[in-house]
Amino acid sequence: xxxxxxxxxxxxxxxxxWWISGLLLLATMINYMDRxxxxxxxxxxxxEWNLTxxxxxxxxxxxxxxxxxxxxxxxxxxxxxxxxxLYPAILVAxxxxxxxxxxxxxxxxxxxxxxxxxxxxxxHWPCALIVTQAVMSKSDRVMGNSILQSGASAGxxxxxxxxxxxxxxxxxxxxxxxxxxxxxxxxxxWAVAWIRLVPPGLLPAGGRRxxxxxxxxxxxxxDQDAAADDxxxxxxxxxxxxxxxxxxxVMVIMINTxxxxxxxWLPTFLQKGRGYSEAEALYFNSLYFIFTxxxxxxxxxxxxxxxxxxxxxxTSRVLVFLACSLLAALTTVAAMLPxxxxxxxxxxxxxxxxxxxxxxxxxxxxxxxxxxxxxVTGVLSFVGWLASAPVQKLFGRIADATGSYDLNMAILGxxxxxxxxxxxxxxxxxxxxxxxx
Length: 437
Fold this sequence. Notes:
globular
């Protein structure tokens, strides 16, 4: 079976576009399985290697900085090289690093693997957003991005279950290594499926980007659909004077900080901060990420429904983002609650909000450019990760100093709302109010 080409019928996405969204979901799932394996096993690894919270923060810091650098490298590469080949190559590379993580023998080698994993995993997002921009119509794009992003939840749900199945209650040294091996091998299967199912010509070749099924290219600078000066300096200069770019800069820093820190520290918060066992924390972690998936898909469905009922596309996205931001802010409530059902229920609401903002952010990003989607995604991701990575180390340092994770958790949830406020101030309103589905 191979996917067929894109539709040209007005503002409707092709069946092939929805099939590709499913493949992107699986790629995101694998991305997060490789990423989340360490955070789920870190209480066991820190005990075995006698590491501090700050040292784990260093691992996430290195991951974040490498992710930032890789975002630039692969963002620019994705605009020049066909994503049909670049995408599977990147996925195989990060899967190999995930496998190699199981071979590490100490803190230093773990740092190296964590850095390489972040570098290669960053290539997923420029490639994936180029694909959804190419095969999805404008009004369907938030839903397509929701499907793409929901793979993060699927991967994060499966990872604790895989770990529990393989590790169980074993107290043997090195019992934590097997999940890295198994999860690392899954990426090879996806790469084979991608090459077999996505035929040549279905996706635009590098440097020749068009938007599927809209009837026109983007109406917005900074690239003016590649008609203007296409030099790197000229393009970057236009980007820097675009207010929308700076609104997205603040937004991505805030949502990335909130999502990545809760993702990385939740198992430790539950076990060391609230006294849950490893098994209880792993099972709840799976449930938590089921709710992130619910929030992600619900955000896309809500934006799609509002747009199809006549609301301006931009307005629908802002309202959905606002609702998700308010859910994310419930981390303040969670930080004040003891172990129990009320705490867990509050965290599930936080889960829906912290991931639900991402499909809207991706769709805002896709309004900036057509021919340089990889570049824009790479630059935004670079800034977002570079700004949020040091907070991982700071989180660990504060936890070591205070003996608690509560202060950090209480503050984190408000970041998406702050990002939305800056975005609304900087994004020109008049142009988007006229944009209807």
